[in-house]
């Protein structure tokens, strides 16, 4: 575990959601800043919510993106492709759940299945392909991360 995560300790742990049945579950409350002039969640806010879900999935398997970047010569993940269905809308003060599940792992990329839910209702469903890159070039996803994600799926 990184020094930064150790400093956060128990205080920050509840902010990261939890693993359940091979998926990461992240509760998020909708704030005014997430909405548009119609008081509904702005479509791009769902993208931010899902980005948080992907980041917290990595934290849940004890892999911080900042550590990957620092310890592996600048390794980062970039979104390569996204297929998204907007099925319903949320409003201010709703409590949403971002569910992120590894779907497919390839050499330099992985596809994650994500849902934004309000209770049992699925509001947004997406398949997101991310690629591992270093210096602007695709690189193989580290074996430690492969193992960590496979162990939880």
Automatic annotation (TrEMBL):
Pfam families: 4HBT
Domain Thioesterase per the UniProt entry, residue ranges: 41-123
A GO term, aspect molecular function: fatty acyl-CoA hydrolase activity
UniProt KW keywords: Hydrolase
PANTHER family according to UniProt: 4-HYDROXYBENZOYL-COA THIOESTERASE FAMILY MEMBER, ACYL-COA THIOESTER HYDROLASE YBGC
Similarity section: Belongs to the 4-hydroxybenzoyl-CoA thioesterase family.
Name of protein: Tol-pal system-associated acyl-CoA thioesterase
Organism: Microvirga lotononidis
């Amino acid at each position: 575990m990184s020094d930064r995560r150790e400093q956060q300790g128990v205080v920050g742990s509840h902010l990261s959601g939890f693993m359940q049945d091979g998926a990461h579950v992240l509760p998020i409350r909708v704030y005014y800043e997430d909405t548009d002039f119609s008081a509904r969640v702005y479509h791009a806010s769902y993208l931010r919510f899902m980005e948080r879900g992907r980041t917290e999935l990595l934290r849940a398997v004890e892999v911080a993106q900042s550590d990957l970047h620092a310890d592996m010569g600048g390794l980062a993940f970039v979104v390569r492709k996204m297929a998204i269905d907007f099925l319903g809308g949320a409003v201010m003060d709703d409590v949403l759940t971002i569910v992120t599940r590894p779907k497919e792992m390839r050499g330099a990329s992985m596809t994650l299945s994500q849902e934004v839910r309000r209770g049992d209702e699925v509001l947004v469903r997406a398949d997101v392909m991310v690629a591992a890159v270093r210096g602007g070039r695709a690189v193989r996803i580290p074996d430690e991360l492969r193992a960590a994600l496979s162990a939880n799926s």
